[in-house]
Write a structure and sequence with these properties.
Elements (H helix, E strand, L loop, with lengths): L7 E6 L2 E6 L5 H15 L9 E6 L7 H11 L5 E7 L15 E7 L4 E4 L3 E7 L4 E4 L3 E7 L2 E4 L9 E6 L3 E4 L2 E2 L14 E6 L2 E6 L3 H4 L8
Parallel strand pairs: 2-3, 3-4, 5-7, 6-8, 7-9, 8-10, 9-11, 10-12
Antiparallel strand pairs: 1-2, 11-14, 12-13, 14-15
Helix pairs in contact: 1-2
């Protein structure tokens, strides 16, 4: 039975040899090829005086029993002296924390514009003629009677919410709302705007969980 010879690589280094063992193949296939190279194909470079050997397992996490199997195979060549059997340290995946919401307070008067990068919780009113924009969601704890533009960089999953929603205009990404007179909401509940099937819709805030289970609210 022929043995595929691509699971074990042997490289010469300054102080001896490095055995690079494939970390994706079956363990028994690895041992068979290691044995084959020691006995058959690499006799010339594995003979002579004492040779120091470093075994690299790649990302494979070998048990002590498996390491002992490697030692047993290599020790059959009396001049090979194992210095180390090592796996590569695991690379830690760094997960950037989700951007937290920023909170601002004040009043946006006619002619004033407030722009924010990310989600924004605004404590105050946006008066007629005033504008509030954000790359993320906009939550206004107050009256929105001016213009609000969420997802300004193209995020059509953003929402706009306000305690009192009577804006001159709403925009989410590139979508513009209908006239507030066409929303069909008359009670003074907190409302929010969102995009559904390419159109902007307005609903009471307690319906937000139906639109987006996580509400995109990162507190």
């Amino acid at each position: 039975m022929s043995v595929a010879k691509h699971h074990v690589m042997i490289k010469g280094v300054k102080d001896g040899l490095v055995f690079l063992l494939n970390d994706a193949c079956e363990w028994q296939d690895l041992l068979k090829e290691l044995q084959h190279k020691l006995e058959k194909t690499h006799q010339q470079i594995l003979t002579g005086p004492i040779i120091h050997v470093h075994v690299k397992l790649g990302s494979r996490e070998a048990t002590e029993e498996q390491k002992e199997e490697i030692r047993s195979v290599i020790k059959q060549k009396g001049n090979l002296l194992i210095q180390s059997i090592e796996s590569e340290p695991r690379k830690e995946v760094v997960v950037e924390p989700a951007a937290r919401m920023s909170t601002l307070r004040g009043m946006i008067r006619s002619g004033q514009t407030l722009h924010h990068e990310g989600d924004l919780l605004y404590l105050g009113d946006v008066n007629p003629g005033g504008t509030i924009t954000s790359t993320g969601n906009i939550y206004i704890m107050g009256s929105l009677r001016g213009m609000a533009h969420a997802g300004i960089d193209g995020d059509d999953k953003a929402i706009i919410a306000a305690s009192h929603m009577r804006p001159t205009q709403l925009r989410i990404a590139g979508i513009i709302s209908r006239s507030p007179d066409e929303w069909g909401i008359e009670e003074a509940f907190m409302e929010f705007a969102y995009v559904k099937d390419g159109k902007m819709e307005i609903d009471k805030l307690h319906q937000l969980h139906r639109i987006s289970p996580d509400s995109n609210l990162k507190l």
